[in-house]
Write a structure and sequence with these properties.
By secondary structure, the chain is an alpha/beta fold. 30% of the residues lie in helices and 24% in strands. The protein has 4 helices and 8 strands. A 5-stranded mixed beta sheet has the order 1-2-3-4-5, covered by helices on one side. The protein has a 3-stranded mixed beta sheet with strand order 6-7-8, with helices on one face.
């Protein structure tokens, strides 16, 4: 009967889940990484608000004793030449920093990014798959751009980092793409 099939399927799934939980090697997060909380009560509304927020974040990054510091998606309002100069000047060279921000492309579309700052160098990872319909709108001139085949791995502090932003943590192909390109440390940021 149908009820018996559901019972057998449910029992099988419960047994698989129990087995996976009992055999899972519970690894702790890498103790060389510090994730900073950036809750300020409200997102920055102006360029001046963003500058003040950057000053606070820079103090927190500089105070970190860990070699890797990770800040969430949209930690900064907009990554630009001024932001880059400010962060390169103030982030300690021995600290690898990954932070979420946005950039504006020549097409006028926004791009969700992870900026990696390490040893006086900057690498920018563009989100491969923004949330369809709400962020990624391929039929319109606004919204966020998708960068499906670009920069799947960041080289930060001698590690090959698999960067994932928000929605990318829910889908398989960005992870597989990065792992196939040599990434071995997953860093996922969201807001």
């Amino acid at each position: 009967t149908l009820a018996a099939k559901h019972w057998v399927t449910s029992t099988f799934l419960v047994l698989v889940a129990l087995t996976a939980n009992m055999t899972f090697n519970n690894r702790r997060a890498d103790e060389t990484v510090e994730a900073l909380d950036t809750w300020f009560g409200h997102p920055p509304r102006t360029v001046y608000d963003d500058y003040e927020r950057q000053q606070v974040l820079l103090v927190r990054v500089a105070a970190s004793t860990k070699p890797f510091v990770v800040l969430p998606e949209t930690s900064l309002l907009n990554w630009n030449d001024v932001s880059e100069k400010l962060w390169l000047k103030r982030v300690p060279h021995e600290t690898a920093t990954l932070l979420g921000s946005e950039t504006t492309e020549a097409s006028g579309k926004a791009s969700n990014v992870i900026v990696a700052i390490n040893d006086g160098n900057v690498q920018i990872y563009h989100q491969r798959q923004p949330v369809p319909l709400s962020m990624w709108k391929p039929w319109s001139h606004d919204g966020y751009a998708a960068h499906w085949l670009e920069d799947p791995v960041l080289s930060v502090g001698g590690k090959k980092v698999v960067p994932l932003i928000c929605y990318e943590t829910l889908i398989v192909w960005p992870v597989l793409h990065s792992l196939l390109m040599g990434g071995n440390h997953i860093v996922a940021v969201s807001n």
